[in-house]
Amino acid sequence: MKLIINGKLLLIDGMLDSGFVMFDTKIRAFGLMDDLEDVIKMHGRSFASYEVVDACGAYVSPGWIDLHIHGSMGFDVMDGTEEALTQIAKVLRMNGVTSFLPTTMTMPESQIRAALDIIATKMALGVALGEAEIIGAHLEGPFINREKKGAQNESYIQKPNFDLIQSYASSIRMITLAPECDHDFEFSTLMRAFTHIKLAIGHTNCSYACAIKAFQMGITHITHCFNAMPPIHHREPGVIGAMMQMPFTADLIADDVHVHPGLYKGLYQLLNAERLSLISDCTRAGGLSEGTYDLGGQKLSTVGGVCRLEDGTLAGSTLSMDRALERFYEAHPLPIFELVKLVSLNPANVIGMTRDKGSIEVDKDADFTLFETGFKVIQTFVKGSA
Q1: 181 in a domain, yes or no?
Q2: Is 359 exposed, middle or buried (CB count within 10 Å of its CB: 0-12, 13-18, 19+)?
Q3: Residue 152: partners with Cβ closer than 8 Å, 6 or more residues away
Q4: Is the peptide bond before 142 cis (omega within 30 degrees of 0)?
């Protein structure tokens, strides 16, 4: 059994300024330091029997979740290797992320299948020491609209195809698609049987009416809000207008490049704080120096931390979750316990995992991110392991 003591516990409804968490693989108790002795006695143990971590006043957050990450430090999910997933998982954990969805790209179907195969294999092995936990795959493409392909490779775009994902349904957690390309919502209708898979609108040119219908058909999330979709227009509100009407959840790349930081506060308020998540959309260029890299078989260059294809198209990011929090906070200062919900409780809710993750509550996974002022990550725990 382990204890984190003297931490600022970030809970759903506030912060305990001097608190403790007791845990093994699950959270067993938490509270104020003043009550620790009584709790230990109640559990029939002595303080000396615990493995103790002194947070020394640092924030103790629920573990951070990244719903959309392609790669980092020279590795990409589409490499289709265990080494790539392992290295990405290690880097993410150092940056405060305790669980994530490895995200695919629009590439030849054989490569997509290879990536999904290795994700499923890695998940079956369980979380390894020193790594963030893979909690499912995010299929971004190939079911997208050519007109809003962004940095996806147009050569391999296809209509929504149930045959492609059927064998991997147990390990897929999210699928981003353009609903206007789903004829009569046939694919979306089939996916209703797989309630653990979140369908998301992205890389889309769909109209307001189509987006409303998509929500009704179960496509209830919006991938990298504002990016790779039509801007709002007063005569054709599009996806953004539909988001103002229906209770979509959405995620945001808060790197101050993909979206102007002046919109962060408005989006947060529009989504009632509970429906917005932050993502990294990081590529293999994350954590590396400026240079030229590969993204989905295309040449990607980074200058000043910004990723672009040869034609100037924005192509993912070099963002880490700690920096995403920092930039969002700079644009819209929030109480820290509210801010971290954007990378913990809210993404857990998007993918239906609040039973196990997203907040510091008894019987949830012992996933924690300890950080100092400025969002400097000190230590992470994944299912109780540091």
Answers
A1: yes
A2: buried
A3: 105, 106, 140, 141, 142, 144, 203, 296
A4: yes
Direct distance between the N- and C-terminal alpha carbons of the chain, in angstroms, rounded to an integer:
13
Instruction: Count CB-CB contacts under 10 A for residue 305.
Output: 14
Would 365 be classed as within a structural domain? no
CA 194 – CA 213 distance, rounded (Å): 19
Model confidence over 226-241: pLDDT tens digits?
999 999 999 999 999 9
Going from the C-alpha of 84 to that of each of 88, 111, 139, 189, 299, the distances in angstroms are 6, 14, 17, 34, 19
What is the rounded CA–CA span in Å between residue 214 and residue 52?
49
What distance lies between CA 280 and its chain's CA centroid? 7
If asked whether residues 204 and 331 sit together in one domain, one would say yes
Q: Are strands 137-140 and 276-279 parallel, antiparallel or unpaired?
A: unpaired
* 169 & 140 share domain: yes
Is 281 marked active-site? yes
Interval 107-133: pLDDT, tens? 999 999 999 999 999 999 999 999 999
Structural domain count of the chain: 2
> Could you tell me the pTM of the whole model?
0.97
Q: How many helices (H) and strands (E) does the chain have?
A: 11, 21
Q: How many CA atoms lie within 13 A of 223 on its CB side?
A: 30
Structure-token match 């700079």, residue found: 330
Residue 274 lies in a domain: yes
Rounded to an integer, what distance in angstroms lies between the CA atom of residue 372 and that of residue 139? 34
Instruction: Give me the pLDDT at residue 303, please.
Output: 95
- For 60-104, the pLDDT digits (tens) are 999 999 999 999 999 999 999 999 999 999 999 999 999 999 999
Query: 39: Cβ–Cβ under 8 A, 6 or more apart, which residues?
Result: 20, 22, 29, 31
> Does 21 share its domain with 145?
no
- The rounded distance, in Å, linking the Cα atoms of 106 and 315 is 13
Q: Residue 3 is inside which H or E element, if any? A: strand 2-11
Q: How do the residues of the chain divide into helix, strand and coil, expressed in percent and rounded to 5? A: 30, 30, 40
User: What is the span of the domain harbouring residue 49?
Assistant: 2-60+373-381
135 and 15 in one domain? no
User: Catalytic residue among 76, 79, 182, 281, which?
Assistant: 281
